[in-house]
Each structure stands twice: as C-alpha cells, then as structure tokens.
What we know:
Number of helices: 4
Strand content: 15-25%
Radius of gyration: 16 Å
Number of domains: 1
Largest sheet: 5 strands, mixed
CATH architecture: 3-Layer(aba) Sandwich
Order of helices and strands: EHHEEEHEH
Amino acid sequence: xxxxxxxxxxxxxxxxxxxxxxxxxxxxxxxxxxxxxxxxxxxxxxxxxxxxxxxxxxxxxxxxxxxxxxxxxxxxxxxxxxxxxxxxxxxxxxxxxxxxxxxxxxxxxxxxxxxxxxxxxxxxxxxxxxxxxxxxxxxxxxxxxxxxxxxxxxxxxxx
Length: 159
C-alpha cells in the first residue's frame, strides 16, 4: 500500500532528487522543438540548475515544492516577480514542473500547480505566468485546463 501524498517545500537535502527531475525536464523537450540556443550541455546545465536550486531556497520570494508518496515523485518552482509600472505589479512565475512518468495523469501536477498558485497568492501575487512550447499539445491542454491563457508570443529564428 502506498503512503500518503504530501507536498512540502524542498530542503537542501532534496537537491539531488530535484536536480535529477530538472535534468530530465531539460532532456525531455520534444525533439521537434526548435532550439534557438542549441542542445543543452548537460554538465553546464546541471551546474546552472544547482545554482538555481540554491538561490530558490535562499530567496524569500522563491520556492521549490516537492510531492512525495513513498518517495519524491514531482516538483514545481515559483518566484514572485515585480512588474514596476503596472497597476497589478506583483506577478508570479511558475516553472520546472515535473512529475515522474509513472505518476502522470493522476492529478499530481494539478496539485503542484495549485500549491504554487496558493503560495504566490500568499506572497501578494495578483497573477501567475507559465511558459510552454506551442507544439507540446499535452502541455497546451494541461495549462489551458488550469485557466492559463496566451498573452504574448516569444519567437526565435536562426540567422
């Protein structure tokens, strides 16, 4: 029998588990996506992700959550972002959502997103932003089901 599902803020000791998921997320991008920066150099990417993890834990305006059953099965991150010059200046950014493949389509990703949105709201955010590739139909369906809507397009071209 599986243990209870818990979502909690990640701790320094969770770094290896979380970085493994973030690395998988980096590598799991569909191959048909245009890569304006080329393929990731994994050793350098892991160094950057490790730094991001440490910075997120150290910052009062950022958080990394983990979801566990008997082990860590997923993660999500969020950061409060100040948008000076707007009437709704506090925005949140959600990123690095990952659920282990064998636990997908069971509501865990939705639970993580709701947890991140609740945290952002508690920090004073008035909206949450997330990015996904438009060719990733599963991501497009998932995020739109949760109420996210396109408001801008970011494009790249080889030169």
